[in-house]
Amino acid sequence: MQKKFKLSDVILSVICVVFVAEAAAPVASIGNSQYFWWVLMIVAFLLPYGLIASELGTTYEGEGGLYDWVSKAYGHKMGARVSWYYWINFPLWMASLAVMCPDLIGTITGMELGLLPSMIIELLFIWIVTLIAFYPVCDSIFILNICAAIKVILALLVGVLGVYFVLTHGFVNNMSPRTFLPSFDSNSLSYISVIIFNLLGFEVVCTFSKDMKDPKRQIPQAIVAGGLVIAAIYLFSGFGIGAAIPISEIDTSSGLIDAVSLITGKTGGLFIAGVALLFLITLFGNMISWSMGVNSVAAYAAQNGDMPQVFARKSPKNDMPTGAAVMNGIVATIVVLIAPLMPSENLFWAFFALNLVMFLLSYIPMFPAFLKLRRTDPDTPRPFRVPGSSGVLKIMAFVPVALIAVALIFTAIPLSFDPETLENVLPTTIGSVLFIVIGELMILFRSKKPA
Length: 451
Known about the structure:
Helices cover 71% and strands 0% of the residues. By secondary structure, the chain is mainly α. It has one domain: Amino acid/polyamine transporter I (Up-down Bundle). Helix 10 crosses helix 16 (347-363). 51% of the residues are buried.
């Protein structure tokens, strides 16, 4: 008998998918204005996004998720764009996490790793995730639950240690009221994309519907409960990092471990090694949980002729999308192999920013698609309906689109031409244009499907 998710499993899956521990540090680096941006994004983005994903996910069940909703509303060409952007972000994200692994292994073992051992560790991370994606999500539910629990524990640990640090040493950063006002400089606004990224992923859980006991009830329940928990732990962990580390010293790739080290006064030993090990495990959890949803969407799109046919290949034993999984591994491998040739010192942010842009692009059509499906497909039963008048629904759909657009501008477009900005942003601009062009060529030569 096939295993099925209980509600608790679905909620933990939401936490495992949506909560991204490694993305807390970049947001904390903008200072106390992070709290304004967190609260604004929770109210203006997370709430409408969660409600809309709940309606679409329970109305249109299946493996296509985001791609399926957009295709139903706007046709296969737009669906093809969404599926491409949605998929390509994943191997880029996997590469960004892979380049973190050698430093974490070094912290755990106390050894300084050279280029070749680091490369081997990065490739092992990529291909372990790739191989696990060959098996159904229910076979990995224990891993996902453990990773979700570890993420919560780490976030609470950083938050509690931050409170302890404040009580014993005071705040390391200026805490005057004016510092809590929103900052509108390009550095701060570029990290808004990270906050939005931190709140995305609910639709991935919708692709697990065939593994749920009662998806029409479990999906909205899990999104609401998981969303509240995630919002709380993001704010608490952000406080811990901001309380213990001077803003200028926050490392976007290791801020969580830095916070623990600074608060405890330890840069090594079993405790720090244990924290690094738990953090490493959460990186596997991120990739495993996301790979299930991303691969399903890519395979479903390929079956409809909207992605290359290699993505449609499935295992004859368990019907898992092995073609998409292998392509993830190949692309991520290429990225980490060329990483030593890149001029950027912060490879994590270089890859992560490009992943952010492609990922956010895939969500823009989802919100207007929700409105169009409400208008053009009113007779399909909706087990969960977003409440509100037509005007309210339009606000709920277009405010998130506007926020995504602002985030994309400040993440992918150089707004000044000083050397530092060009070094940090221009590679993201070039990479984004390259992948968009590849996507358009893919659409041009895709299998013929009705528009």
